[in-house]
Design a protein that fits this description.
alpha/beta; Rossmann fold; two-stranded antiparallel sheet; 16 helices; about 55% helix; globular
Length: about 450
């Protein structure tokens, strides 16, 4: 994993992005050089058009989910995504090279070559996604511990990163009963550093069930780090591997003395400018869609088109969130707040569709303009549930240190849920966002939101 602007990315993901962008730029340069006489004209044209096409392909591939882990995605699903991406990419490639100067010969051939290049990139992206999932090469990880915590780390790692290889579990000093597969316990009486070197370990995850009373061999761990082996505690491991902060394995000291939670004036100003510009653009682009939605809601059932509900925002202040009405007007006729659930019988037919593709959230762009919300942040919750969740879940109030968002890290990383357990899972993603949020992470969330809408996955 590599940390880019406070956000952890797989090294393989960065290589995929650079490969695609580099291939497009260099191929376009070669194509144009063959058709344009004189490098003085050819190089600037090739560079500007190549970079434009590369940028468009990056956005399309990101929004299609091709730079996300693919081990849980079938080949048919990847092909379907590639077809949808090509429906956008091919016209864009043709359009970009339609702006070549009239003095350039063979413009149609250049356009055809650019479209062929785009198709080749998409085919390679589908192939690479599934070829890499079968690759056995990856990070060699030693889990320091053999108890329940170590078992949890091992299970999580296998599900989250198919390229990581667990070489084994090294028992802690006070761990007598292993709760991991005995065949993977490394008990050859060697020291931690000798065992790590013997097995070619790249990273050690400290996952001891008991960390008091001398159970943490700091000298041995330091020796491992001096020898170039990464050593991470369990909270950091979950943060970088899963993109979440596990409330069950973190303490206030780790949050206080670690990095992150940067809420400076520059970041606040930059985020506000980004929110205003993007929300204005999105309102203009989606105005026809919002008009059609309003008409459809009015035709299906009586009642207001828009729905306003009190939510908790920045610093626990309340505001009225605006959404397209997706439920019957008597959804809470008894006056008691209820969790929204998947397949909720209170949802209308139009409401079911607009919720699935997130159209019901579009009026919240006006909340963004008013400064009550941001485009990206933890989803705002109702005061009734906030009081309950704050009492039950540690660190829940931390999510209110930033503005709530129209979309968020939890929404693109976790499926739909409406229980206390779901709230805990989503909070752990929200904590990751609050700790590490930057403009870069906001862009990542927005790209992944497009992929969630296209595939119908994710949470609300």
């Amino acid at each position: 994993m590599i940390r880019v602007f406070n956000h952890y990315l797989h090294r393989r993901t960065l290589l995929q992005i650079f490969f695609d962008l580099g291939l497009i730029v260099f191929a376009v340069v070669g194509i144009v050089l063959l058709k344009v006489d004189g490098p003085a004209l050819a190089v600037p044209l090739a560079t500007t058009h190549g970079l434009s096409l590369a940028a468009c392909m990056f956005v399309i591939n990101s929004a299609s989910g091709f730079y996300q882990p693919s081990h849980n995605r079938s080949l048919n699903q990847s092909v379907a995504r590639a077809v949808l991406a090509l429906l956008l990419a091919l016209p864009l490639a043709y359009g970009i090279f339609s702006f070549l100067p009239s003095s350039v010969n063979g413009q149609e051939a250049i356009k055809l070559a650019a479209m062929t290049l785009v198709a080749a990139v998409m085919v390679h992206r589908v192939y690479a996604a599934h070829a890499s999932s079968k690759s056995k090469a990856g990070t060699q990880i030693l889990i320091f511990g053999s108890g329940a915590v170590a078992s949890l780390v091992g299970q999580t790692l296998k599900g989250a990163d198919p390229h990581a290889n667990i070489v084994g579990y090294f028992p802690g000093p006070n761990e007598e009963h292993a709760e991991v597969p005995l065949a993977q316990v490394l008990n050859d009486q060697a020291s931690l550093i000798d065992t790590a070197i013997k097995h070619g370990v790249d990273e050690i995850v400290v996952a001891l069930s008991e960390r008091r009373g001398g159970s943490m061999p700091l000298r041995q761990l330091l020796d491992c780090k001096i020898n170039g082996i990464r050593v991470v505690d369990i909270a950091t491991y979950f943060e970088k591997t899963l993109g979440q902060i596990k409330v069950s394995h973190v303490n206030a000291g780790w949050l206080i003395f670690g990095d992150g939670f940067n809420q400076g004036a520059f970041r606040t100003f930059g985020k506000r400018v980004f929110d205003v510009l993007c929300s204005l653009l999105m309102i203009v682009m989606t105005a026809p869609l919002m008009l059609i939605t309003a008409i459809a809601i009015r035709l299906e059932s009586r009642g207001p088109v828009l729905y306003r509900q009190e939510r908790v925002g920045l610093n626990n202040t309340t505001f009225n969130v605006i959404k397209f009405r997706s439920m019957r007007t008597d959804a809470e006729k008894d006056g008691k707040p209820r969790w929204a659930a998947a397949n909720d019988d209170r949802v209308t037919r139009i409401g079911n569709f607009i919720r699935k593709v997130r159209i019901d959230e579009l009026p919240q762009l006006f909340n963004v303009l008013k400064g009550e919300m941001s485009l990206v942040g933890p989803r705002p919750e109702r005061p009734y549930f906030v009081d309950e969740l704050t009492r039950e879940i540690p660190y829940y109030a931390v999510r209110h240190s930033v503005k709530p968002g129209v979309t968020g890290w939890a929404q693109v990383r976790y499926q739909y849920g409406s229980t206390m357990e779901d709230s805990i899972e989503k909070l752990q993603y929200d904590l990751y966002y609050v700790k590490n949020h930057t403009l870069f992470l906001d862009l990542v969330v927005m790209f992944e939101t497009v992929a969630v809408v296209l595939t119908g996955k994710g949470a609300r």
